[in-house]
Amino acid sequence: MNKHKSSGLQGHCAHNVLVPQASHVYSNERVEKGYSPAVLIVDDDPDCREVLRLPLEHQGLRCLEAENGKSALEIIRKNSISFIITDCHMPIMNGCDFLEQLALENPHPPPAIMISGNLTDIIQEKAFKAGALYIFSKPYDLQNILFLVLKFIKVAS
What we know:
- The chain has 157 residues and is α/β, with parallel strands linked by helices.
- The chain has one domain: Rossmann fold.
- It has helices at 28-32, 46-58, 69-78, 95-105, 121-130, 142-156; strands spanning 38-42, 62-66, 83-87, 112-116, 134-137.
């Protein structure tokens, strides 16, 4: 049995909708006082990044974007990141290679989830081995991703 989270949230989540509790929402007051956790969204498709960015910003989170793993590493070297959402298949450096390199550079990398439009058992295994906590298959349920991001950021704060 895989030690990583694999129930309900892994893969397509049409039947398991998780909705964040109100206590997980970051109020504007916390953002105004300078507390704004940063989420790094890594995807080569700008529309996919926007679909994730807009609801996260609506929750009071600051979002940074990268179009591949190499750019994401550069952003992480210059910014404090609280959570990572990465696509699997990207040019220059894919999501698995990005998470592996991040783990080499940072002994305590931020929590990360991966999204894949072509999820296979091999990709899933590589993603977990690289450090992804969860993996979602496209199309994914955005509420599940929001729930996880807010849950992990709340735990870390």
